[in-house]
Specification:
With about 350 residues, this protein is of the alpha/beta class. It folds into 2 domains: about 20-125, Winged helix-like DNA-binding domain superfamily/Winged helix DNA-binding domain (Arc Repressor Mutant, subunit A, Orthogonal Bundle); about 140-340, Vaccinia Virus protein VP39 (Rossmann fold), CATH 3.40.50.150. The chain has helices at about 15-20, 25-35, 40-45, 50-55, 60-70, 85-95, 100-105, 110-125, 140, 145-170, 185-195, 210-220, 255-270, 290-305, 310-320, and strands at about 45-50, 75-80, 80-85, 175-180, 200-205, 225-230, 245-250, 275-280, 325-330, 335-340. The strands form 2 sheets. A 7-stranded mixed beta sheet has the order 6-5-4-7-8-10-9, with helices on both faces. Strands 1-3-2 form a 3-stranded antiparallel beta sheet. Helix 4 packs across helix 5. The longest helix has 25 residues, at about 145-170. The chain is elongated, with a radius of gyration of 21 Å.
């Protein structure tokens, strides 16, 4: 019998997810407080993101993640394009304040991830996964058997819960065939077909992940309804008989340029009226939170080329690619999804 992917846990794992997802946020704050004295400077120099980048020699992507994190914590605020310090930030994070807590963070200044953030802010090049200087770049590491196996297993156990939370919220009536792009172990594809009886799915991923996916799908008992296609999502042709495309926790690993390329490829391969689903952790349109997602974005900024994108950023990129963006819907564990229809 196929594994029952419609069962829900009896307890809520939200705090377990948040510990892991928010792990690096403290290091980004430490870098700003101890090494950069960022809040003291901003208190005297309210400015745009571009002016902040120019002053510190920072790149745009990591600076955007940092500012979003601090706005979500209400240390800073944005009015128009200008960022300024809040009373909370001024009172507790500036050197001139008698309530300054910067020295409380000083003992953390040599943590490896804190040091990594100083480099990422200036270079926009992700640090190695987990702060391991001897490790390969994340995307290169995924081409190796050992790393891809362990990473896919990590994402598979996460998807066991998140996949069915997504599947329960999706309206796929009238849809026939879903393509799970960069689908890893295939847990999302299997969860979705488990909840939608007439749907078939194909998981597209590169070697050696394709072999891992095939094994996982067979072990779950879903090989009759979920297939595997081998390919590089940037370079190789997509299966053309699919009327739904899914990017689940994929786009956040890439910069805006790469995301726009992937959305354009999806648009070329979907029929008119075809559906695109983006399942991820989303920053709100105002880029002031939610705080757990802003914290997770710090981890992504550290170790990948991407970040957590905002609802507004996705809407703009989807429209540019030829989609009609839909609304955002929450699912579970600070995740949610947007759908879009090809014009």
């Amino acid at each position: 019998m196929p594994q029952d992917l419609t069962l829900s846990p009896q307890t809520d794992p939200l705090r377990v997810y948040r510990y892991r997802d928010g792990l690096y946020a403290v290091d980004l704050l430490t870098a700003a407080v101890v090494h950069l004295d960022f809040f003291s400077w901003l208190a005297s120099n309210p400015g745009t993101k571009e002016q902040i980048c120019q002053h510190y020699g920072f790149k745009e992507r990591p600076t955007d993640v940092m500012l979003t994190l601090f706005a979500a914590n209400e240390y800073i605020e944005q009015k128009g394009n200008v960022f300024s310090i809040t009373p909370l930030g001024r009172e507790h994070l500036t050197k001139s304040s008698p309530w300054n807590l910067s020295p409380y963070y000083a003992s953390l200044k040599d943590r490896p991830i804190t040091q990594d953030f100083l480099k990422v802010l200036k270079t926009d090049k992700p640090a190695n996964w987990g702060g391991d200087d001897a490790a390969l770049d994340w995307h290169k590491a995924m081409e190796t058997e050992a790393f891809s196996k362990s990473f896919t297993a990590a994402m598979d156990c996460r998807g066991q819960y998140l996949g069915q939370a997504l599947a329960k919220k999706l309206d796929l009536s009238g849809r026939r065939h879903l393509l799970d792009i960069g689908g890893g172990s295939g847990i999302y594809a299997c969860s979705i077909v488990a909840h939608h009886a007439t749907l078939r799915a194909t998981v597209l991923d590169q070697a050696p992940v394709d072999r891992i996916a095939q094994r996982c799908i067979e072990e779950r008992g879903y090989s009759e309804r979920v297939q595997v296609a081998t390919g590089d999502m940037f370079k190789d042709a997509f299966p053309t008989d699919c009327d739904v495309h899914l990017f689940s926790n994929v786009l956040h690993d890439w910069g805006i340029e790469e995301v726009e390329v992937l959305l354009a490829i999806s648009a070329r391969n979907l029929p008119a009226g075809g559906m695109l689903i983006i399942h991820d952790a989303f920053i709100n349109a105002e880029k002031t939170g939610p705080l757990p997602v802003a914290e997770y974005s710090a981890l992504l900024m550290h170790s990948t080329q991407g970040k957590c994108y905002s609802i507004g950023e996705y809407s703009t990129m989807l429209a540019k690619a030829g989609f009609e963006p839909g609304a955002y819907h929450e699912t579970a564990a600070d995740r949610g999804f947007m759908t879009a229809v090809k014009k």
